Amino acid sequence: MLDLDVTWTSPAPGVPLLVPSGWGHVGHFGAALTPLPDGSLLVYNADPSHPLGLTPGDIVLGYDGRAWSELYPELAEAELPLKGMWGSCESSMKHAWLMAAGMNWHLFDTIDILRYETGTIEHLSTTPLDSASMQVQATEQLPITGVAFPDITSTDTVYWGIIDGTNIGYVYVTVWGVDSRLGFYNAIYDLMITHPTDGLIFDFRYNTGGNMFQSNDGLSLLFNSVVPTIGFAERCGNPNDHNSMCQLGNESLYNISGEPSTYYDNPIAVLTGPGAVSAGDQNALRFKFHPEALIFGKSTRAAFNGPEEHTMPEGWAGSIATADAYLLSDPT
């Protein structure tokens, strides 16, 4: 459930809003962060005129002399209103909370930065951030030489190319929208038929979802047979037994329909992370059924369900998961 007044309020000093993730447009902080093993946050992209002088390689430690990894559980426990949401599995939620460090500067007086160039820790006032106007996108991805880099403000959703100095194709998909079907097909056709490659990398570390079937045409080139994958279940039977499930619809709808005349038999690497959600989850999963594919990275968000909007009082919005996906190989 979402309180729309909270959702549309902008975070600012004195406004007790807690932001639980740091993907997408992060102009509020002006730098994109990703968690390191110790819970500190690496800057990998920053506005060139950042008021605190943040540059890639700097590390955000926390605020007011305390680690962000210690602070965010206390803020969540205090039940500050949440601006936005994330999930769905424990690992993706923890990742989201950590990388949200920068987006919560408005709750603190000072920010603690470990400078890459000097190796020293600086305790800086957050006040200069209040008047800054910055545009930065956070996708946990870096530019690859020879490959067009995604612009999440664009209507384009698929970007591809061959990495300079190699014969390895690289494909980004930011959204599984209407335009993705042809773009994804064209990318694979180009890197498989027009310019045959020695390997393919699919970067799904940031994908805001959409329609999982937009990948069907492209996947048909990579596979050479019909591959069953998942089904969906809904509650049925005794309304008091939430574990009573029935199959929803036809499982064959989710088959990968490979073309016998084509097959990609070179290595495939799939890069995943918690920045992929919904259809981003599903289409990363579909690659696990390819014999030549290996998955690298952290879990996707794991939002493997079918949500429906729920009628709410004025000023609120909400949805309910009325179905959930399962592997045909493991229905439990």
Q: What can you tell me about this protein's structure?
A:
It is a single chain. The chain is α+β, with helices and mostly antiparallel strands and 332 residues long. It is built from six helices and 21 strands. The strands form six sheets. Strands 3, 4, 5, 6, 7 and 8 form a six-stranded antiparallel β-sheet that branches. Strands 10-11-12-17-18 form a five-stranded mixed β-sheet. A hairpin with a 5-residue loop joins β3 and β4. α4 runs parallel beside α5. The longest helix is centred in the middle third of the chain and has 15 residues. It is globular. The relative contact order is 0.13. The model has no long low-confidence stretch (mean pLDDT 95).
SSE diagram, text form:
Elements: E1 2-3, H1 4-7, E2 24-25, E3 31-35, E4 41-46, E5 59-63, E6 66-67, H2 68-77, H3 90-99, E7 110-114, E8 121-125, E9 137-138, E10 158-162, E11 168-173, H4 180-194, E12 199-207, H5 216-222, E13 226-227, E14 230-235, E15 245-248, E16 256-257, E17 268-276, H6 279-286, E18 293-297, E19 305-309, E20 316-317, E21 319-327
Parallel strand pairs: 11-12, 12-17, 17-18
Antiparallel strand pairs: 1-20, 2-9, 3-4, 4-5, 5-6, 5-7, 7-8, 10-11, 13-16, 14-15, 14-21, 19-21
Helix pairs in contact: 4-5
Strand segment count? 21
Task: Report the span from N to C terminus.
Answer: 28 Å
- Topology as a string of helices (H) and strands (E): EHEEEEEHHEEEEEHEHEEEEEHEEEE
Largest sheet: 6 strands, antiparallel
> Given the structure, what is the number of helices?
6
